[in-house]
C-alpha cells in the first residue's frame, strides 16, 4: 500500500524491503556482545548493533523504499515519509567495493538525494537489491529531466555537473575547455569519469563518479550532443 503523501507520484511500481543480515553475522554480534560483557561498554555496543538490525528491530523492519511512476518515497523507522520527484531531484551515488587482504568482501551503496530547496536523504544498502533500485533512480531521473535540459542546451544554456560544464560547443573544467570534436572518449573507469582528447595518451580530465550529480543524466546529455542518441560503443 502506498504511504500518505504520495498521491501525486502516480502508480506504485516496486517496493524494496530492509535487508536482513545473515544468521552467521547475527550470531557473531550476539556472541561478541555476550563475551564482551566483561567490558560493559564494548558488550553494550555489540548488542546495540544487533538490536538495531531489521532482524530484531520492529521499527527498522517496518521501513520501506517505494518507487513510483513520478518519484520515490522512503518510509523511515518512525513512520515519517520522505518524497522526491524524478523531475526535480538530484542524486549523487557512491558505490564502493570492499576488500580484506586482497579478497573481495562486499560492496557498499550510498545514494544521496537532494530536493530543489535543499532537503537531503541518504538511501543505502540497508535496503535489499541496491543493484536494482540504485540504477532505477538514475534512469528515472534521466527520463524525466533529459528533454528539458536538451532544450536548454539548444537555447544556449551551460549546464554544470560538479566540476564539469557542458554546452553545445563542448565541455569545460577549471583547467580549460574542449570542443566536442576534440574529445575522443568519455568513459567510466574504476569509479572515475575520464575524458580523453584526440592524439593524447593521458587523460585530459577526470573526476570521481561520486562527485557528479545525476551521473546517468550527464552521460545521456553527452551522448545526445556528440552522437544525437545513445552511444554506439556502450
From TrEMBL:
Keywords noted in UniProt: Membrane, Transmembrane, Transmembrane helix
Pfam families linked: DUF6585
The protein, known as: DUF6585 family protein
Originating organism: Streptomyces pratens
UniProt keyword Transmembrane helix present: yes
Segments crossing the lipid bilayer: 26-51
InterPro entries, A to Z: DUF6585
Highest rank taxon of the organism: Bacteria
